[in-house]
């Protein structure tokens, strides 16, 4: 943005300088001062004015001015800066006559506010172009930021999914179901459905971060059935769930993680059987 701004600045104000020289009357030059020098002096002051306009427009954009307010600001600021620059230019010529009396004719040939109309047109066009390009740049940056946020969200969802998916549990479940096929094909089909439902619950976590207790309980029951393929009668599971809490929303995986940790840090540390009880009720 900065490089393009200064490039357009150079091109635009160079054209402004040429326009001054082309529009200068043939009898305008005054002995002791060239038209080129006067044009460059006015352009230098005009560039300083454009920097003041840029600062004002940045403040307005930061304040989120509406398009109508921004247009009114452009018109007002363009007129004000055009008059101020012309006043500075007139004052600079007057000061020069004090140092060199021979330039008094130059002062007489530069009427008060003679350059204001040209400056007003230049500043108004400059302002419209600057505001338009700035708005385009902000929209582009907003689009990039939105894409980055979407990618960050997808990455966070993926990391959360990987955190919930236990490779050890998945491999054991698959191997246990494969072994069950040879013994009881119908039971293996049921367990395969429970395994698929568990995975679907994991992969659909981007839908909502909150689920009902009933949904969590259903997933826990499928998880327990799959774990029983590995632990057998060692895992004794029971639950006492108040029906009035089934519709209550809780964070996804809240109950399942508690059950997983209970099995991992309970039965996982001993070959002895263990009891796992889920008790949910209102206080």
Question: Strand percentage, roughly?
Answer: 5-15%
Number of strands: 4
Model regions low in confidence, pLDDT < 50 over at least 5 residues: 26-33
Give the radius of gyration: 39 Å
Oligomeric state of the chains in view: single chain
Q: Estimate the global geometry from the Cα principal axes.
A: rod-shaped
Q: What is the N-to-C order of secondary-structure elements (H for helix, E for strand)?
A: HHHHHHHEHEEHE
State the helix count: 9
- Helix share, percent: over 70%
User: What's the main sheet like?
Assistant: 2 strands, antiparallel
Placed side by side, the strands forming the largest sheet appear as 1-3
Head-to-tail CA distance between termini: 60 Å
Query: What structural class do the secondary elements suggest?
Result: mainly alpha
- Arithmetic mean pLDDT: 81
What does this protein look like?
With 283 residues, the chain is mainly alpha-helical. 72% of the residues lie in helices and 7% in strands. Strands 1-3 form a two-stranded antiparallel ribbon. Strands 2-4 form a two-stranded parallel sheet. It is rod-shaped and about 115 Å long.
